[in-house]
Amino acid sequence: MEKDTAVDSFFEAVLTLRSKEECYRFFSDACTPKEIHAIAQRFNVGKMLYEKRLYSEIIKATGASTATISRVSRSTGDGYKIAFERLKQTDE
Questions:
Q1: Total-model pTM
Q2: Which domain holds residue 81?
Q3: Is there a smaller number of Cβ atoms within 10 Å at the N or the C end of the chain?
């Protein structure tokens, strides 16, 4: 994705959020419920792909289509990996 000033401003705002409640409030203003659920679904698909789970398991757990799983699989890069590794550290 190309960097752009508007996206930079949006990300800077996201980085100021300090709790799940603040995230709910911010993203409820910024996105529709359907958009939030789509992003969350892609995130969960990415996590399961990162864990080397089978497509059939991912479909059952997330309800994602094979097209969505393939799309996430092609885009899974360092961004997801950074988040998953950090989340793993907080679980320990």
A1: 0.86
A2: 33-92
A3: C
